[in-house]
Amino acid sequence: MTLHPGPVDGFWGAVGRTPLIRLKRASEMTGCDIFGKAEFMNPGGSVKDRAALGILGDAVNRGQLVPFQPGTVVEGTAGNTGIGLTLAANARGWRSVVVMPETQSREKIDFLRMIGADLRLIPAKPYSDPGNYVHYSRRVAEELSKEGPTVWANQFDNLANGAEHERTTGPEIWEELDGRIHAFTCSAGTGGTFAGIARALKSRNPAVRTVLADPMGSALYSWVKTGTLKAEGGSVTEGIGQAARVPGNLEGAPIDDAVQIPDDEALREVFELLRDEGLSIGGSAGINVAAAIRVAREMGPGNTVVTILCDSGARYQSKLFNPEFLRSKGLPVPSWLDG
């Protein structure tokens, strides 16, 4: 795989080959080399651009969509997958319908409208409720399929999601480090990023330790540790964690262990990376970095740990960088915002 191939063709060619950034403070704290894969540098601004290409590329291969012919892409999303799908669809001449809980950040809502998605905001409901955004989006896709070629992206259970990370993200990490990697950790929403990368790394070296990072309010930590889905507490992070089920992309993934990260620990990494290293990351990336530090400390000095910097802090300005919001949740406010 060539990491820097030179000029590329449009949005589809620009996704991936993101840099691996050494996190100075985290590395010095632990005596390890901790790296973050800078997925916020994808053209749509998040790791979900890769899932979008995997899912839509698979739909083309199956004959469900034809580039530059009428077609519609439908998805239920916390935001970033909807953005990646919409931009990828725009580049191939398809329409996008995005169903999203109205509780998601204002920045993602505005951005989806800006890029031309047919955005349908609905009340946030648990997965067990028929009104949950995933079920709602499936019904929308079923209705639209009567009018013409329509694909329900189904990112949680569509295995093309994880396959794309196994094909691209994992091998990129391996090549960027010349195989010198001892552990990988990241959070899971659909599970595609974690599962695909874990499979790619384990296939090259089964000794690579794979650790799932989970926010409070998610049951995946309990599932890994005990085999039972049990959620406790809550989190302000968006797009990660599962309270009631194991997504198809995560089932069967090689998971060695799990860590659970509270919001204050994650936000400390968000704020300190911004202040000290000039890296603007979102809450899920904060969970990931905090998890990488925990894994590094457990393994001891001299190891190399990799995680994912999923998206940028700009997508959460109205929440994670809003002093009033932070105080309302009992979370720390960085000094430069505490006016």
From TrEMBL:
Tell me which InterPro entries the record gives: Cys_Synth/Cystath_Beta-Synth, P-phosphate_BS, TrpB-like_PALP, TrpB-like_PALP_sf
EC number, as in UniProt: 2.5.1.47
Transferase in keyword set:
yes
Question: Which residue numbers delimit the Tryptophan synthase beta chain-like PALP domain?
Answer: 13-311
Q: Which cofactor does it need?
A: pyridoxal 5'-phosphate
Task: Keywords in alphabetical order, please.
Answer: Pyridoxal phosphate, Transferase
Record has Transferase as a keyword:
yes
Which PROSITE patterns does this one have?
Answer: CYS_SYNTHASE (PS00901)
Q: Which GO terms describe its molecular function?
A: cysteine synthase activity
Q: What class of enzyme is it?
A: transferase
The protein depicted here goes by the name Cysteine synthase A
